[in-house]
Amino acid sequence: MRLAARRVALFGGVYSNHLALAATLADAARAGVEEAVCLGDMGAFGPNPDLACDIVRRAGIPVVQGNYDHSLGHDLPDCRCGYSDPRDNAFAALSYRYTYANTDPAHRSWMRALPRQIWISMAGREVLLCHGSPRRTNEFLWESACSDAFLTWLLDACGADTVCVTHTGLPWIRELPVGRQVINVGAIGRPANDGDPRVVYAILTADQEGPPSIEWRRVEYDHHALASEMRAQRLPEEFAETIETGWWTTCLEVLPAKERARGRY
Fold first, then answer.
1. pTM of the predicted protein model
2. Closest Cα to residue 11, out of 149, 171, 118, 162?
3. Measured over all CA atoms, what is the biggest interatomic distance in the chain, rounded to whole angstroms?
4. Strands 2-4 and 210-219: what pairing?
5. 82, 151, 160, 238: least surrounded by Cβ within 10 Å?
6. pLDDT at residue 208, as a whole number
């Protein structure tokens, strides 16, 4: 899929958080974007996954296929999230079983056909949107673990001026020589492990003189209502705690040391 825009909202990891999704789209509309694009993972973690799917599909928002979307769409037995720790995998398995059982088959069929990449032309610059990385859907691109040389190699390999990803849930940007960029747009399904219950997304704006500029947007929503909904659906209390406090309680072992040190656990 290929799009053209001068001002675009990019968000990843909806994780069934329909309240944060609605708030993000409303904020993006107020900010005057031409297009909003989801970088994948409609389901996981949160309650009542059909609600988020309904919002995105009614709005006609383009969606990159994340690892969760691929697994749900192809009726796979797990999310293929890329975790290695037994505790992380146990929570991931519980979340996946719940999400699969509560996602309408019509939505799963839609996920199966989602593109793995979306290209956006912005003032003559080529921006590639993918989920984990240009080479693998479930690859984690951590800020502390990615050298400039490696990121430049990724850009060269895919032929993009800017690459935007998600999957890790932690937002960051790396400016590289000749106006090139790699951006992790974060996730709106859960907070960024910084003690702030608000969620984060990015707005890219084309610049005729250089690479697109980036604006990070913090979005407030009724996170207490979402936590109550999670408890009503008998999802793990650890998930609800993350939503209410802004600190991750699961999926911690995959974090590199520098990223984990910024958290509470």
1. 0.96
2. 171
3. 52
4. unpaired
5. 238
6. 87
